[in-house]
Write a structure and sequence with these properties.
Layout: E1 2-5, E2 12-16, H1 21-38, H2 43-59, H3 61-72, H4 76-100, E3 104-105, E4 112-119, E5 122-126, H5 134-145, E6 149-153, H6 159-171, E7 179-181, H7 189-194, E8 198-204, H8 207-219, E9 223-227, E10 232-236, H9 242-254, E11 264-270, H10 274-287, H11 306-321, E12 325-328, E13 332-333, E14 336-337, E15 340-343, H12 350-353, E16 360-366, H13 369-377, E17 381-382, E18 386-388, H14 392-399, E19 408-409, E20 424-425, E21 428-429, H15 434-438, E22 442-449
Parallel strand pairs: 5-6, 5-8, 6-7, 8-9, 10-11, 10-18, 11-16, 15-16, 18-19
Antiparallel strand pairs: 1-2, 3-4, 4-22, 9-21, 12-15, 13-14, 17-20
Helix pairs in contact: 2-4, 3-4, 3-6, 4-5, 9-10
Length: 450
Amino acid sequence: MIASINPYSGEMLKEYSPISSKEISEKIINADKAFHLWKKTSFEERKKLMLNLSDVLLLHKEEHSKLITIEMGKLFIESGLEIEKCARMCKYYAEQAEEFLADEIIETDAEKSYISYEPIGVVLSVMPWNFPYWQVLRFAVPAMMAGNVCLLKHASNVPQCAIKIEELFIAAGFPSNVFQTLLIEASEVESIIANPFVKAVTLTGSEKAGSHVASVAGKHIKKSVLELGGSDPFIVFEDANIKVAVINAVKSRLGNDGQSCIAAKRFIVAEKVIDDFTQQLKEKFLQLKKGNPLDKETQIGVMAREDLAIELEKQMNESIAFGAKLVCGGRREKAFFEPTILANVKPGMPAFDEELFGPVAPIISFSTEAEAIALANNSSFGLGGSIWIGDKVKGMKLAAQVESGSVYVNTLMKSDQRLPFGGTKKSGYGRELGKHGIHEFVNVKSVMVN
């Protein structure tokens, strides 16, 4: 059974039986049939429907926000912001897709040469629970505006969100089967990728899951895009505005209860200001009000599942055993994990080497710029990062040395529909969002005419 459980109360909300292999095959066939009609629709028609989707999201924002919160524990106010962000992204691609996919004229010795961007067909998405609407729509919206159709295998702990997203497309007026949710177990993914009607797959999730999906896609010679983990450095130089850096450190580390791939995961701080930074961060952490994530006054809620909190506790305890110092927090109660600061963190500890997917902030000291960059790059991940510094020009030069898909200087690391998003190293490959994102699932065709 696929279960929807409220992580705050532990209440079983709903249970679903996975669909059968026969039903999966029927849905894939229906998706392929829908593609051959959908790809012929005009950009004007797609634009109208995508703007409808944006409106429907906002019209029922409270309902969607509550659903996100009760299924995976996100603060209600943050769930609302997620819905608003989805609506903005729908509007962005509705207005920009035609330009992004317009034929590109190339000067050659032929009478005419151009590049066209054509949809490829049915694309499978394997999506995580931490941003249950945003992660799905940031893939599906550009893919569908390009003329593709989508199948969704969502995380097993957010089945209600998965079902609701398909209903959203129907409510917005999209044709049947251009977006379908598959309530399936993870074991079914391999056979779906192998299906000849499925042309590509995208996954947002763990390194292990990404490696498996990529290997299956490679076996069947199909395009894959992976957005995996991150251990994003948050580098604070001694001339930074420490107060501003701390405010943003709290937002970056504790947003979504720390369960974000682009959350600041390693706070690399100049030794001359590390005590000040740590003290201010501790004060902010201790001021946060915990409680029911549906309560609008709650500032720190629960993690999405108790097993995730247990794993985080294990990583914290192992780091302490290796010499990390517990500054504050450290207590777990079921799925609740106190906002925690670990000082004296060094390479070789889980708090440095692994992704901490929860509200734990490891603090690492550096003495020189070169050491700061070396520590930032001493990771198997390369998704994002931020630099906090007084000299912005120097900050941009240092950003060029950080090995990651994104680096933000004196501003919070976040995904933005106008900018390509993705990583390097074991954070994955390919891009979502922006012009680059809509080009991931198209056939880039060269045409030469004499």
